[in-house]
Specification:
zinc, 7 strands, 197 residues, disordered C terminus, protease, metalloprotease, Collagenase (Catalytic Domain), 19% strand, Peptidase_M7, signal, alpha/beta, globular
Length: 197
């Protein structure tokens, strides 16, 4: 009888078309309430417009519990993209509607060093969602940033990164903005710095 129960238990996922094991452990919970919509303003982003659009599309295609869309005005945006002459830096999230406004500074110095603009824009957006840098990661991980070098142009989050963002936004009530905002400064030719505002 025990052998039959074990055999039936093993068949149930196959009959339902589900998987077990590592893939199931990596999947993120879907939102229990409405999807969190974050609005952004790219009016100060200049030459970064197409890189931002592609980075946003990559994130929207990869995640389920949060959605990015342009704001109707800069005043109503949850975060802003801004072109700067320095290094990329971003407010570390997760940014939530009604919380403090976030900012993504898209620094020209990283482009001058040879890094891909779309990868930079998508990477910095990952910080808005609450993801940290992992410079030791492979090119397939968006948050590995400058670690893989200038030849890496991947601007799509890995499945694990997308799953973490979905976990960050799975329960809108749980996505509470931190009291103090941390700024992640991505110095793409050296170690990352952070400062707290």
């Amino acid at each position: 009888m025990i052998k039959r129960l074990v055999a039936v238990a093993a068949l149930i996922p196959a009959m339902l078309g589900t998987t077990t094991g590592i893939a199931a452990a990596q999947s993120a919970p879907r939102a229990t309430t409405a999807v969190v919509t974050l609005t952004y303003d790219a009016s100060q982003a200049g030459q970064w417009a197409s890189a931002i659009a592609q980075g946003v599309q990559n994130w929207n295609s990869a995640v389920h519990n949060v959605h990015l869309q342009p704001a109707s005005s800069s005043r109503t945006a949850n975060f802003v993209y801004k072109a700067t002459s320095g290094w990329p830096q971003t407010t570390l999230g997760p940014i939530v509607p009604g919380g403090s406004k976030g900012q993504v500074q898209l620094g020209q110095e990283a482009v001058t060093e040879g890094y891909d603009m779309t990868r930079i824009a998508a990477h910095e957006t990952g910080h808005i969602f609450g993801l940290l840098d992992d410079y030791s990661g492979p090119c397939s991980e968006l948050m590995s940033g400058h670690g893989p070098g200038t030849s890496c142009t991947n601007a799509k989050p890995s499945a694990a990164e997308a799953a973490q963002v979905d976990r960050n936004y799975a329960n809108r009530a749980a996505a509470v903005a931190p009291q103090r905002r941390q700024i992640v400064i991505d110095i793409w030719s050296g170690p990352a710095l952070t400062r707290t505002d």
